[in-house]
Specification:
single chain; mainly beta; binds zinc ion; globular
């Protein structure tokens, strides 16, 4: 399966699902209804497994 739209905006690398930058919960799909707010359910960097805003790559 290839979903080219999933991308870490911090390092520009690939993203492996989604992760909340607040509580750290991971999701396969973007969750607009997430408890911390849909905006916090963001791409998870495939290289470091952090939410994209926390990506340190
Ligand atoms: Zn990244
Ligand atoms: Zn959260
Ligand atoms: Zn990263």
């Amino acid at each position: 399966m290839e979903e080219s739209e999933k991308k870490c905006t911090k390092c520009g690398g690939g993203a492996n699902g989604y992760k909340c930058d607040m509580c750290g919960v991971e999701a396969e799909k973007h969750d607009e209804q997430h408890a911390c707010g849909g905006d916090h359910c963001m791409a998870k960097c495939a290289a470091c497994n952090q939410a994209e805003t926390k990506c340190g790559c």
